[in-house]
Amino acid sequence: MVPNPRRLAPSVLVVGVLALAGCSGGGTQTGDATPVTAPATAATTTAPATPPATATATATAPVTASTAPAPPPDAVMPALHSRTYEQARTEFSRQDLSPARLTAAAQHKDVTLPRDHDDWYICDTSPRPGAPLPAATTVTVRLAQDFSDCTTSFNGYLYEKNDPASTP
Predict the structure, then answer these.
(1) Spatial separation of the C-alpha atoms in residues 74 and 79, rounded to whole Å
(2) H or E stretch covering 15
(3) What does pLDDT average to in each consecutive run of 10 residues of the chain (168 residues)?
(4) For the whole prediction, is pTM greater than 0.70?
(5) What does the alpha-carbon distance between residue 58 and residue 33 come to, in Å, rounded to a whole number?
(6) DSSP symbol at 32
(7) Is 41 helix (H, G, I), strand (E, B) or coil?
(8) Are 20 and 10 in contact (CB under 8 A)?
(9) DSSP, residue by residue, 48-106
(10) How does pLDDT run across 104-131, given as a tens digit for each residue?
(11) Rounded to whole angstroms, how far apart are CA atoms 46 and 14?
């Protein structure tokens, strides 16, 4: 009895798709690497009839399976300039980054960062916005009480009188 190609096509198609996806297809392998297909009842979709020779060539294509999952991509440093420290912590949480990775520092040498600096503005970040942010990286944000102070600097000091290089 000759198999009906229309009845064989759905099962061969399923085996071919599974072989390309790296699955075994539920069949067993014979000594000559020709797959023995599962019964046609496993197929739930219908497809147009295809010649068995083409489907068999697809089903015997080499299969490579990857056992290790791909590592998740590194996060990217968000743009935090001109935001408050509190907004930066919120942005980190929104991007599933731990806010504990943020380290705050004063923008100027002559300014002491208070314990409560949530409403201070971010002048600079390290790493820079858009840079890869591996899981072990700590993010340093430089803060100023007023955003306009971000662009004011006398050799790293907020007030010129505190700059040792300044002459009176």
Answers:
(1) 16
(2) helix 5-20
(3) 54 50 47 50 51 51 57 83 97 94 96 97 97 93 97 94 89
(4) no
(5) 13
(6) T
(7) helix
(8) no
(9) ----HHHHHHHHTS------SPPPPPPEE----TTSBHHHHHHHHHHTT--GGGEEEEE
(10) 999 999 999 999 999 999 999 999 999 9
(11) 10
What's the pLDDT tens digit per position in 53-74?
A: 554 445 555 555 556 565 567 7
Pairing relation of β-strands 139-144 and 121-126? antiparallel
The pair of three-digit structure tokens given for residue 51, joined into one six-digit string:
């010649």
Sole residue written with tokens 């147009």: 48
C-alpha separations of 121 from 34, 36, 111 in Å: 68, 68, 14
Residues 6+ apart with CB under 8 A from 92: 78, 98, 99, 101, 102
Q: What pairing do the DSSP bridges indicate for beta strands 102-106 and 139-144?
A: parallel
d(CA 45, CA 144): 64
Q: Helix or strand or coil: residue 78?
A: coil
